[in-house]
Amino acid sequence: MKLCLAVLGLLLAGSVYAEEEKSSYDWLKMVTLAAHQTDYSGVFVYQYDNQVETSLISHIVGPDSEYEKIESLDGPRREIVRHHGQAWCITDQKVVQLNSRLARGGLSFILPEQLPALSANYQVEEIGVERVAGYASQVVLLKPRDNLRYAHKIWVYSTSGLPLRTAVLDDRNQLVEQYTFTQLKMGNEVDHTWISSLNAPDINSASAKDPDAEKISKFADSGWVVDGIPAGFTKIMEVQRPMHGRHMPVTQLVFSDGLAAFSVFIELLEVDQDEVEGLSSRGAVNLYHRQVDNHLYTVVGEVPPRTVMQVLDSIRYNGR
Q1: Within the chain, where are the H helices?
Q2: 78 near 42, Cβ under 8 Å?
Q3: pLDDT at 204
Q4: Which own/partner pairs from 204-209 qualify as long-range (CB within 8 Å, at least 24 positions apart)?
Q5: Which residues touch 58 (CB under 8 Å, ≥6 apart)?
Q6: Which of 68-77, 92-101, 124-133, 190-199 has the lowest mean pLDDT?
Q7: How many CB atoms are located within 10 Å of the residue 203 CB?
Q8: Any idea of the CA torsion for 38, 40, 46, 52, to the nearest 10 degrees?
Q9: Half-sphere exposure (CA, 13 Å, Cβ side) for 73?
Q10: What is the pLDDT of residues 4-61, one digit of tens each?
Q11: What percent of the chain has pLDDT over 70?
């Protein structure tokens, strides 16, 4: 009888855990929708190492497209504008069209189609309720199931699901980087008038476009193989693209687990090319590159240093 009760207790505990897990993932579903379906504008602060950067972001949902503008408030003027699947970088000197397939947008950092895969790579927990920029938010923790990716904390606005703050933590629970709103407006309070400026001639002119933006060619198999990919990461893109300052195109492979992503670049070394090998970091983004025979391998992404090093050491050419 005691054994039966013990087994029943374990089954009930497992059922409660499953319900908690399901409830936590409901918050993530809200985040993916809110990031694309909410009008909002506000000031947010990006912190990494001892650096602080402040930006103004505006996001509008139009009848046929999303519109987003991120304006730096520190240093030289710089804006990133996105709409109708296109992206531009605007400075005092010029307007350059970016390749939208490679540009990430604002708060839409979770890919909806990869949400089901997150449970295999992260344990999701609700860990409390806090206020951010004056709004009540549910704090959700995504703990990695290995040490090859970072933990993430998301402060989710309880009403709409908009992420108000995000933090990346290492395996010692130390802060790696953080985005947080300090001022925020939503809904009818958001200014829509700036959208009309997107039809300005300098944005739509051909001369404003990056000449390399349309030169990226897709292919299914370049012949390059990466054996040391952490479990849960899948290849979402493989392209051959031009690189500024290079004469030959570069092969790029992009991998994602639905939350984090990294790229592998493989390029043929040129005679006048003098690269410094090693590891460098900026917040959660780590970059590692090394010369192997007559190629330069580079791995860069939002994963710990040990991961980019493991990935680079496993690159090999398997032939087409």
Answers
A1: 2-37, 115-121, 201-204, 305-313
A2: no
A3: 55
A4: 208/88, 208/94, 208/95, 208/96, 208/97, 209/96, 209/97
A5: 40, 41, 67, 68, 69, 190, 191, 194
A6: 92-101
A7: 17
A8: 180
A9: 11
A10: 434 334 333 343 334 444 467 788 888 888 888 899 999 999 999 889 999 999 999 9
A11: 78
Question: Which amino acid makes up residue 156?
Answer: V
Quote the pLDDT of residue 3: 38
What are the residues whose beta carbons fall under 8 Å from the beta carbon of 114, sequence distance 6 or more? 256, 257, 258, 259
Mean pLDDT is lowest, of 13-27, 117-131, 166-180, 276-290, for 13-27
DSSP-derived letter for residue 209 is B
Longest dimension (CA), the chain: 80
Classify residue 179 as exposed, middle or buried by CB count within 10 Å of its CB (0-12, 13-18, 19+). Answer: buried
Cβ contacts of 93 within 8 Å, gap of 6 or more? none
Q: What are the structural domains, with CATH classification, of the chain?
A: 2-208 (2.50.20.10), 217-317 (3.30.200.100)
> Has residue 307 got a pLDDT over 90?
yes
DSSP label of 211: T
d(CA 259, CA 175): 17
Place of tokens 């309880």: 158
Residue 135 near residue 182, CB atoms below 8 Å: no
In whole angstroms, what is the distance from residue 194 CA to residue 190 CA?
11
Phi, psi of 194 (to 5 degrees): -65, -15
pLDDT score recorded for residue 45: 95
pLDDT at 277 exceeding the cut of 90: no
> In angstroms, rounded to a whole number, what is the distance separating the alpha carbons of residues 301 and 147?
15
**Cα(157)–Cα(218) distance, integer angstroms:** 38
**What DSSP letter does each residue of 21-62 carry, written as one string?**
HHHHHHHHHHHHHHHHH--EEEEEEEEETTEEEEEEEEEEE-
Place of tokens 């709103």: 181
Asked if residue 240 lies in contact with residue 250, where contact means CB atoms within 8 angstroms, the answer is: yes
DSSP 189: G
